[in-house]
Amino acid sequence: MPSMELRRMSSSSCVWLPVLVLQCCFQLSASLIYWSAYVELRYLDRWTNETVGSMCECGVFGAHSLLESASGGIVLPNADPLACSRNTTFTAPHEPWIALIKKGNCTYTRKILAARRNGASAVVIYNIDGTGNNTNIMSHPDADGVVAIMIGNIQGTEITNLIKSGTYVYMKITVANPYGLWSGATWAYALSFAFIGITAITLFYFAFLFIKRMYRNQQLRMQLREMKRVAESAIAQLEVRTLRRGDPEVDSEDTSCAVCTDSFQHNEKVTVLPCRHLYHKKCIEPWLLEHPTCPICKYNILKSKMDEESSEQRSSSDVSFCPPVVMTVTSTHQRHTSDVQTAENHVYCEMGVQTQHIYENPAFEDEPQTLEHHNINNQM
């Protein structure tokens, strides 16, 4: 039963995992899309007494704005053009009306909430000075449920000047087209660098795997060559003899070559392995190059060769030649009366035995440290 439950849970997780991945991808793609807005303006020119109208795709909906149409007369804040004050008010002569607020000094949420408290049907925020007609995507998560767009600074300033001169300006906002953030130049550069980076990392990874595999193959080939060399050396040291008529292996029904299964004949060359099994020389040598073991008992011929080499090394290191030790000692009493006497002794020693020193003066041999101190004092 527990296994059935685990199997059922694993199957359900396998089903839900792609769904979650698709949902995350959908949410990510949705967050990278913004909507533009058609902005239509109409007002009465007081000098010509004619209605002036214009329409452009020059607005951008906020990230949390309602994607709906809105229309009405444009109204400016009464005291603070930035609408950042808590007591911001709007005076709207007609309903419905749209608030026009300048960007800066506080968040988009605060501006939008101030206009909505006063009954605005939509909020238009124009950009700061020096940005031309560039627009940004506004983020106002706490002020959703209202139509909010941004327009450029030049257009917003012109509308503000008209309203301040006493001109009634009518605006209609319409949903236009969706755009992706990746369509901009910045995102194009970012995606290009990301693609180049991922490609470079992938190429380096595969190059590393290729070099690693080549190195392993080279090491394997070197090991195979070394094993073949050792096998050839071991094969060259095997016993090879020619069968004679009196040999018990000739024409014997009980003895045959285990490689070719043929019986041994007169004048054939056979190889005798250390395990005392016989084979045709032409049959066993190719076999031993590939498998250095006896086909019958699986005796490894390389093991015997390594044992022989190790025994030779031990025998050669058992006895070593100690270099001659030359020791010159001069007695303190004979220092001014006799010449220097030398002694030279060649000592053959075994490993682990310290070098033996032979002195001419027995007193020095008994108390070397005392004599050394006397010599130093006399020299001083």
Mean pLDDT figure:
75
Task: Please identify the structural class as seen in this structure.
Answer: alpha+beta
> How are strands sequenced across the largest beta sheet?
1-2-6-5-4-3-7
Backbone CA Rg: 52 Å
Report how far apart the termini are: 100 Å
- What top-tier CATH class of the largest domain fits best? Alpha Beta
Shape from CA axes? rod-shaped
Q: How many distinct domains?
A: 4
> Based on DSSP secondary structure assignment, what is the total number of beta strands?
14
Q: DSSP helix count?
A: 8
Low-confidence segments: 9-18, 25-30, 319-380
Q: What portion of residues belong to β-strands?
A: 15-25%
Attribute tags:
380 residues; Glucose Oxidase, domain 1; three-stranded antiparallel beta sheet; 4 domains; alpha+beta; Herpes Virus-1; 14 strands; rod-shaped
What does this structure look like?
The chain is an alpha+beta fold and 380 residues long. It has four domains: 31-182, Glucose Oxidase, domain 1; 184-230; 237-319, Herpes Virus-1 (2-Layer Sandwich); 322-375, no CATH class. Helices cover 39% and strands 22% of the residues. The protein has helices at residues 2-31, 108-117, 153-164, 185-236, 281-290, 301-318, 362-366, 368-379, and strands at 33-45, 50-61, 70-75, 97-102, 122-126, 147-151, 169-180, 239-242, 269-272, 278-280, 319-321, 325-328, 342-345, 348-350. The strands form four sheets. A seven-stranded mixed beta barrel has the order 1-2-6-5-4-3-7. Strands 8-9-10 form a three-stranded antiparallel beta sheet. A two-stranded antiparallel sheet has the order 11-14. α4 runs antiparallel to α5. The radius of gyration is 52 Å and the shape is rod-shaped. 16% of the residues are buried. Residues 9-18, 25-30 and 319-380 have low confidence and may be disordered.
